[in-house]
Specification:
Strand order of the largest sheet: 1-5-8-4-3-2
CATH topology of the largest domain: OB fold (Dihydrolipoamide Acetyltransferase, E2P)
CATH class of the largest domain: Mainly Beta
Helix content: 10-25%
Number of helices: 3
Structural class: alpha+beta
Shape: elongated
CATH architecture of the largest domain: Beta Barrel
């Protein structure tokens, strides 16, 4: 695999869902639920109307440049819409998106003249992922929401940083069965 190319291309849960299903999938509750609805209403139009969870990755082009892409189950290549800032999209992170698929061009008899091979996505929100916080003191905490929306915070109580990190990962892997998590180093968030 070339440097900068992503193994995450085509790994999204690219099935169309309702707004309620998307909020449940992303575990959006309370005041954030209205913000989610407002963002969908703002970005939705006649073309961009299918809600999906999409994961983008960098694909190295023949000329050496890179493009953020994903792939739909029907084989269409999915690009972020031009209205999206690529600098804010992270590879391997699932996003709830409004998707527009180009349709096949047909002649008067209904025969395919040109196959629609691409699709475009407008990002609504980052899909839910549990978080592991690493404090400057090297203490570790795990924060996640259950499927019912209950917020859970756990602090691994091991002797070394490595053991605390392993316990945090085991909590997410074994107790939750989550496919991914975000690790946030608090000392790197503090402006210098």
């Amino acid at each position: 695999m070339l440097e900068g190319e992503s193994e995450f291309i085509g790994k999204g849960k690219c099935t169309v869902m309702s707004v309620d299903e998307a909020k449940k999938e992303s575990r959006v509750y309370g005041p954030k639920s209205k913000d989610f609805d407002d963002k969908v209403a703002e970005k939705q139009d006649a073309q961009f109307c299918d809600l999906m969870v999409v994961t983008f990755g960098w694909k190295v082009q023949k000329d050496g440049s890179r493009k953020l892409v994903s792939k739909l189950p029907n084989g269409k290549i999915l690009f972020p819409d031009r209205s999206e800032e690529n600098t804010h999209i992270e590879c391997g992170i699932p996003y709830v998106c409004l998707v527009f698929e180009r349709k096949d061009k047909l002649d008067e008899q209904g025969n395919v003249i040109e196959k629609g091979r691409e699709a475009f996505a407008k990002i609504i929100a980052e899909d839910y992922s549990p978080k592991i916080y690493v404090l400057p003191s090297r203490m570790v905490s795990v924060v996640y929401r259950t499927k019912s929306g209950k917020l859970v915070k756990k602090i691994p109580a091991q002797n070394t940083f490595a053991e605390r990190m392993m316990e945090a990962i085991q909590i997410l892997e074994e107790e939750l069965g989550e496919a991914n998590a975000k690790i946030i180093f608090r000392k790197n968030q503090i402006p210098t």
